[in-house]
Amino acid sequence: MSTQNEYIGSAKVLALIPKRKDFTDEAFHDYYRHPHGTLGNPISTMRRYVQSHQIHTDYLDNSQSKYGAVAELWFDSLNDASTFREHPIMVDHVIDDEPNFVDLDNLQFLLTKEDVVYSNPKAGTGLSAADMLFSPENRPISTKLLHFIGKEHTEWISDEDESLGLRIGALRHVRCIPTADVLDENAAFIGVRELWWPTRTAFQKGVEADKEAFEKLIKKTEGCHILLAQAERWR
């Protein structure tokens, strides 16, 4: 298992996107996909792009809908990531489109590096052949839990993280660690935990199988934000 100081992958930006109050959930999600996603997808320095659309689950409280979506953008370097809003596509199209569906006063950004706890479960864990072959990297839609860690929880990384994720059936587990380059000085979070399942049903079955592990993994809730999402990979 990787440690807090072992970073795997390129620089990653996460944007927590609150919907404008006059938008329905459906209208917000559709607008984010198109035209907004269509306008932003051509950014030349962006290597990967995922839109994570919030979906309701009874395992979380009502605060889960505070942000309607999370944008996930990967770049080759910290410089590309920290300056992506200066890209011509952003300046000419995307930034001007944001007020059309986003509550800009509560929009937040985090600049991070990925610490991969595990990319897929090891052989011999009793998983089906399909589960062993699953990867969110090569499919357009998956289900994921995003746990944004509040600033007061400085010791949020644990040696138990890997085992807890496996106990609830998560097939990929990543911790996003903010870098020294601050994209948003007012960001309320110091890290992000991400866990993936192939489907929403798989998530539900995983949590039901070991609610104790689920509660332990997300026990830090004060000052945090947790949501379940349909992750839609654009590239």
Automatic annotation (TrEMBL):
Domain of life: Bacteria
Gene Ontology molecular function: oxidoreductase activity
Pfam families (UniProt xref): EthD
Residue ranges occupied by any EthD domain in the UniProt entry: 21-104
Protein known as: EthD domain-containing protein
